[in-house]
Design goal:
Blueprint (H helix, E strand, L loop, with lengths): L8 H8 L4 H11 L6 H13 L2 E3 L7 H12 L12 E4 L4 H8 L5 E4 L11 H14 L3 E5 L2 H5 L3 H15 L3 E5 L8 H12 L7 E3 L11 H18 L4 E3 L7 H14 L15 H16 L16
Parallel strand pairs: 1-2, 2-3, 3-4, 4-5, 5-6, 6-7
Helix pairs in contact: 1-9, 3-11, 3-12, 4-5, 6-8, 9-10, 10-11
């Protein structure tokens, strides 16, 4: 347990500071006015492709579906010079099938362990799931915090659980999902970000959402978390990474999120070790926009293969 951890949510919010809601909304509104054209746009689109965690998290996932996902991650498009995606993200039971395709390549294997998406299973079961996923080949673990405990003020319990999962990951990277739509306020999102970051290692992530709620990654909650990362870095020197997930479906949205990163954290975070998109459906639109830049013509959306039924 971190000895600095306050005993209540109110104390935590007071310690890390309140969020200027009006300021956040005004700031993110300006990101949408930025114009990116020609070579800069192509650069941004390819960068976004390299940051995608290509995801399938459905009850009907099969080994064959995961193989198709992995092949698309390795080669997003036959006729375009584009990078691989950053990772494939699957349920823990599917890690071994993904490992057969991408292990040893530049594509990482991420697994949503810890009772995803509710995080309501006993801690012992969650830790065993993490250890099994890592043993089967997962390079990254996406965990969910216990939002009910957080909102009830059980701050130390939540941080202890994050720390326990961090230990269970071993050398694997940990991404801590806050499920921002359930945290109710920007103040709570900032507080949860700090709570997680205080027990993470450099290069671990905080993540907005599971992609399974009605309100997932927004520019507003993304901005709150980016500013928390900036302030934590200035305070501690520790570089924590960021992953918005769910609801990012267009290339235009992805580019706007990258503008937010550049203007808040700078170029050091404009790479897939510091920023990811948990948004499979955005990949095809990124490819569609790149083809348009190359040929001058838009392709119909149905001409692109389906990556998954994920986010």
């Amino acid at each position: 347990m971190n000895e600095r951890t306050p005993r209540s949510l109110k104390e935590l919010v007071e310690r890390v500071g309140h969020v200027d809601t009006v300021g956040i909304e005004e700031r993110v509104a300006k990101y949408g006015t930025r114009s990116i054209k020609k070579s800069s746009k192509v650069f941004g689109l390819k960068l976004a492709v390299s940051m995608v965690d290509l995801t399938t998290l459905e009850g009907n996932d099969t080994p064959g579906k995961v193989r198709s996902l992995c092949n698309k991650a390795l080669r997003p498009h036959e006729d375009l010079d584009v990078p691989t995606t950053a990772a494939v993200c699957v349920y823990s039971s599917m890690v071994k099938h993904a490992a057969k395709i991408v292990k040893g390549t530049s594509v990482k294997i991420a697994s949503v362990a810890t009772g995803f998406p509710s995080g309501q299973t006993p801690l012992k079961a969650r830790l065993e799931e993490v250890k099994t996923a890592v043993k089967d080949g997962a390079d990254e673990i996406d965990m969910v915090i216990t939002r009910g405990a957080f909102l009830a003020g059980e701050i130390r319990q939540v941080q202890d659980e994050i720390s326990s999962v961090r230990d269970a990951c071993g050398e694997a990277t940990l991404k801590v999902i806050l499920e921002t739509s359930e945290l109710e306020t920007y103040d709570n999102i900032r507080a949860a970000s700090f709570l997680a970051m205080e027990v993470l290692r450099p290069g671990d992530f905080i993540k907005t959402s599971t992609g399974k709620t009605s309100n997932n990654a927004t520019l507003g909650n993304n901005q709150v978390m980016l500013e928390a990362i900036r302030d934590f870095y200035l305070e501690s020197g520790t570089e924590i990474a960021m992953k918005p997930a769910g609801g990012i479906r267009t290339a235009k949205q992805a580019l706007t999120f990258l503008i937010a990163v550049k203007e808040t954290l700078g170029d050091n975070w404009l790479n897939n070790s510091r920023y990811r998109f948990g948004a499979s459906s955005v990949l095809n639109d990124l490819l569609r926009q790149l083809l348009k830049e190359k040929t001058g013509n838009y392709q119909a959306p149905y001409t692109f293969s389906e990556a998954s039924g994920g986010y």
